[in-house]
Amino acid sequence: MNINMTLIGQSITFAIFVWFCMKFVWPPIVGALEARKKLIADGLAAADRGKHELELAAKRASETMHDAKLKASEIIAQADKRASQIVEESKGAAKVEGERMITAAKAEIEQESHRAREALRGDVAALVIAGAAKVLRREVDAKAHADLLEAIKNEL
Fold first, then answer.
1. Which residue has better confidence, 111 or 121?
2. Does the pLDDT of residue 137 top 60, yes or no?
């Protein structure tokens, strides 16, 4: 056995093996590596897009919360304003109702005063007749002197 022949045979076999690997084994491995590289790159790009979208969503949520707080403060201000208007309207209505009640009470007092005066006039007229009857020592006829009694009542 010649070492040179063995070495040349092994070199030829190795060259055939390298050619076979480069022709049939290497392309699927390189394809798989390229596919894996593309998958990883797509995953990283998707992660970046997701992160960016998350930041945008957080910004939109912050703006929405700010708008909602402004709207809530506007609604509260309008409610306070409306409450003040209702209180003022109630005060005005209560004042008008109080004035109406005072006017009604004054009218009732005036009527009651008028009735009391009329009753008092009648009582005074009766006392005057009784006093006149005692002074004259005879009875004064109220029916006969109705005009005179009416005149006395009106004078009082």
1. 111
2. no
